[in-house]
Structure formats: structure tokens, C-alpha cells
Backbone:
């Protein structure tokens, strides 16, 4: 453990993987959703794991690995081992309740696609327990979605990308990454996660986000060209015109990728003297 009184979920994962190399962040979240571990939360919503939390997770994973026990039995063993009463797991939901919950979560995804402002009132309408993570009742599931809208918090972004927090801040300042605030929590959507992973790879060459600002500028210029072509379609405001605009934009994006690849190959050949 570090000198702090708590560690982040990414740091917990690093500790656990020394003994359990296959454990994932989703697995930790699932065990939390079942009431087996209850980390505290920071004011911004990030998990704060204590030394006891980490010890509990290690105990649970050993029980699963060595005895193949279901979580219901492991819960009782946790109580016996630590001499504490663990919070009860969420009550199982009926098919009707599950369908209603999935419908509400689908509305969050649709709203977030329109933008964080549209998502906020939809999130506010959800029960408090569903605003951060869906409840999963299958003991065997090990790949739970990190948040309702397939977005992650800062701790998870750092773990997934290998970036430092300073680099993330720099990338946002350069326009390479964009975060969203949903229900008071800062999250990064799937496109930001994909971008962060690429930035993490660039970092291996000593290239910082500020050195890559030119990519964001190039995208802005390319979007300007696409916008000139599809603006008329978008102004029509009909489903058919929006569909044509989407198809044209997609085709131009593919052409742009092909052009960049061809020009880059030519430049690399010149650089290498081929």
C-alpha cells in the first residue's frame, strides 16, 4: 500500500494482478455491486479503496480460485473471516423490472449521444443506484460496462491508456481529449478512451500531447471541408436528408483517411531514402 489512506481502483488492480493476473476493473466493480466490498467515494465520485478493501478482494478471489465457491457462500466466509457484517446484495429483479431498467438506461445512451446537457435530465430521472453503474446479478459475469453510457472516470482512463493525469490535462487543453460532466461526475466517452490509448502509445516515444496538437488542427480543417459539402443536406431537416448527409460525411472521412495514408507513405519513403 502507499502512504495514503486509500488507493484508486487502478492501483488496486495493479496490486491484485501480482497474484491474480486475470482480474479486471470490471470484476472489481462487479464484486462491489454485489456488496462484497464497499469502497468510499471522493467528492468527485472516484472510488477510494482502503487496505481492508484490498485485503477483502484478495480473500474473495482466493476463495473463487481455490474452492470455486459461489458468491453467496463467499459472502458468509467474508463475514466469518473478518468478523464484520457485509452489506446485503441488491435484491434480484423481476423480468419486468429488468426490462424497465434497460429501457431507462437506453434513454441515457440516446440522450448522451445528443450531448451532456440532454443527458443530465434523463440521468436525474433514474433511481440513485442506477446513475453510476448498472446492477448485475449473474455471478459469472466478469465484463460489466463501466458506466451506463460506456464512459469511464479519470482513474479508469489512466489505467486503460497508461497516460498520466498531467498528460490527460494537457491533451484536453490541446483539444485532443474531451471530457463530459454527467450528474456531477467527469467522464470520458468511448472516443476519448480510444484517443487516450493512442496518446499513451505516442508517449512511449517521448511525444507529449502538446506535440500532437497538429492532428487536432488537421481534423478541424477536414471537418470544415466536410461541412461545406453536407450543410445543405442538414438544413433540409428531414430524415432522408440527414441520412444522405451522414453517408456523404462517412464517405469523405474514408477518402480523407486514404489520402492521409498515401501521403504519409510517400513522406516516410522520402525520409528513409527509399
Residues:
Amino acid at each position: 500500500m502507499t502512504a495514503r489512506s486509500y488507493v484508486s481502483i487502478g492501483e488496486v488492480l495493479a496490486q491484485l494482478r501480482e497474484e491474480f493476473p486475470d482480474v479486471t476493473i470490471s470484476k472489481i466493480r462487479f464484486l462491489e455491486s454485489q456488496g462484497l466490498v464497499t469502497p468510499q467515494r471522493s467528492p468527485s465520485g472516484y472510488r477510494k479503496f482502503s487496505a481492508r478493501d484490498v485485503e477483502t478482494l484478495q480473500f474473495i478471489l482466493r476463495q473463487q480460485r481455490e474452492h470455486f465457491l459461489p458468491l453467496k457462500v463467499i459472502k458468509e466466509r467474508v463475514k466469518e473471516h473478518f468478523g464484520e457484517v457485509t452489506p446485503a446484495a441488491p435484491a434480484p429483479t423481476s423480468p419486468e423490472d429488468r426490462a424497465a431498467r434497460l429501457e431507462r438506461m437506453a434513454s441515457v445512451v440516446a440522450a448522451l449521444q445528443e450531448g451532456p446537457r440532454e443527458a443530465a435530465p434523463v440521468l436525474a430521472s433514474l433511481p440513485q443506484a442506477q446513475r453510476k453503474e448498472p446492477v448485475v446479478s449473474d455471478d459469472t459475469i466478469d465484463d460489466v460496462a463501466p458506466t451506463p453510457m460506456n464512459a469511464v472516470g479519470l482513474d479508469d482512463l489512466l489505467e486503460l491508456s497508461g497516460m498520466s493525469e498531467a498528460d490527460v490535462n494537457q491533451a484536453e487543453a490541446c483539444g485532443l481529449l474531451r471530457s463530459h460532466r454527467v450528474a456531477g461526475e467527469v467522464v470520458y466517452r468511448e472516443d476519448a478512451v480510444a484517443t487516450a490509448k493512442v496518446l499513451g502509445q505516442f508517449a512511449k516515444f517521448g511525444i507529449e500531447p502538446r506535440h500532437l496538437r497538429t492532428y487536432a488542427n488537421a481534423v478541424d480543417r477536414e471537418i470544415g471541408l466536410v461541412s461545406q459539402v453536407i450543410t445543405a443536406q442538414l438544413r433540409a431537416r428531414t430524415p432522408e436528408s440527414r441520412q444522405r448527409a451522414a453517408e456523404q460525411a462517412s464517405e469523405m472521412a474514408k477518402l480523407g483517411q486514404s489520402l492521409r495514408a498515401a501521403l504519409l507513405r510517400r513522406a516516410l519513403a522520402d525520409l528513409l531514402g527509399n
In short: The longest helix spans residues 239-272. The beta strands are 40-41, 47-48, 180-182, 185-187. The domain at 9-82 is CATH 1.10.1660.10 (Multidrug-efflux Transporter Regulator; Chain: A; Domain 2). The two ends are 52 Å apart (CA to CA).
